[in-house]
Amino acid sequence: RRVWAGLRGVTLAFYGQPRDCEPLEVLDLSKLVAVWAKGGDLILQLRGQGQKVTLKAESWEAQEMWRGFILTMVEMKVPTDLALLPGHLFQLSEALREEWDRRAIPRAVPRVPSCFFEVTRLEAEGLLERSVGRGNMVLRPRGHGQGVSVTTRQEMNGMVLLRHYRVNHVDQGYIIDVDTQHRCSSLAEVVQYFVESSKGSLQPLHREYSSRLEFVEMDGENAEETQRVCEPPPAAPTPQP
């Protein structure tokens, strides 16, 4: 039968409709022994009498995401054998952080560096060109869960030098694919390697935040749009004795 599923910690709930509040059935994943994909099925092996639960997802990617979320909640760590893009792995890390917060257990969770952008190679080159002076290196997805790419932009004698480097995702971290391969335990170490190896000439591009509150206002008479800066409200008058 077709149902909608929701994961809350180690409880997997099934609903008849997306907006239903009461589940039709719940599954306690604290008894999970293993979860694996077989064909178009996602099979959950539970402890006790060899119970198995078979689920189907609409796509292979959705199936792998569900496997990742289930294992993350049960093991309280992001699995290292997932064939997912870095953006998806970031979602798992965020879900794990929220679960640690929900359980009120302090825990440091690896995060994707702020210089990681969900862009293509050409988009990364354009991003660096528009951001001269704010950083000259970005991380981006490489596709098919194989790792990430590092794109750098430098200028020498008036010429622009663009470089792209492969960073392979392995079980225990990442391997930078250069002449002498370098192993890193996290993407933050990957960024640090490029900064230190270039003696600081490569710097990560961080997301820019605006220091002014701006908005676009529509003129009702001539239908013209005007960009304005939001002014702070006037200070309240000081009460007199």
UniProtKB/TrEMBL annotation:
InterPro entries the UniProt entry points to: PH-like_dom_sf, SH2, SH2_dom_sf, STAP1/STAP2
GO molecular function: signaling adaptor activity
Region annotation Disordered: where it falls in the sequence: 220-241
Highest taxon above the source species: Eukaryota
ATP-binding listed as a keyword: no
Keywords of the record: SH2 domain
PROSITE patterns: SH2 (PS50001)
All copies of domain SH2, residue ranges: 100-209
Biased composition regions of type Pro residues, renumbered to the chain: 231-241
Record-linked Gene3D superfamilies: Pleckstrin-homology domain (PH domain)/Phosphotyrosine-binding domain (PTB), SH2 domain
UniProt keyword Nucleotidyltransferase, yes or no: no
Family matches, as PANTHER family: SIGNAL-TRANSDUCING ADAPTOR PROTEIN 2, SIGNAL-TRANSDUCING ADAPTOR PROTEIN-RELATED
Protein name: STAP2 protein
Source species of the chain: Rissa tridactyla
Source lineage: Eukaryota, Metazoa, Chordata, Craniata, Vertebrata
